[in-house]
Amino acid sequence: MKNYVLIAVHIVIASLLLGMACSTPAKNKIQGEWTSKDGSTKLKITDKGFAMDENGEISEEYFIKDDTIFTSFQGNQPYTKFVIQKIETDKLTLLDPDSRQLEFSR
Fold first, then answer.
1. How are beta strands 32-36 and 91-95 bridged, if at all?
2. Strands 50-53 and 80-87
3. pLDDT of 61-106, one tens digit each?
4. Which residues contact 83 (CB under 8 A, 6 or more apart)?
5. Where residue 23 falls among pLDDT bands split at 50, 70, 90?
6. Cα 13 from Cα 47, distance rounded (Å)
């Protein structure tokens, strides 16, 4: 009887760990090409690069912690911080370092 309980506990824990490992993190949700509302700025986010300019070609390294994107050009510090205010499938709202709200769509 004890063995069945231990096996059941292990199966439940393994299922929970597998479920957490397969969930989609925020980093995967924001990856892609975004365009600002007025069309003047392009934002391109890949798994390793964050590029926001008119052409979207100058890429910076980035990482995400909680609801903030930290970017740096070739590892230089201090980091530039962009706060993710709202993220949906086709809409992204960021707060830039100057506290301006930037709205993007795919």
1. unpaired
2. unpaired
3. 888 888 888 888 766 678 888 888 888 888 989 888 888 888 989 8
4. 67, 68, 69, 94, 95
5. low
6. 29
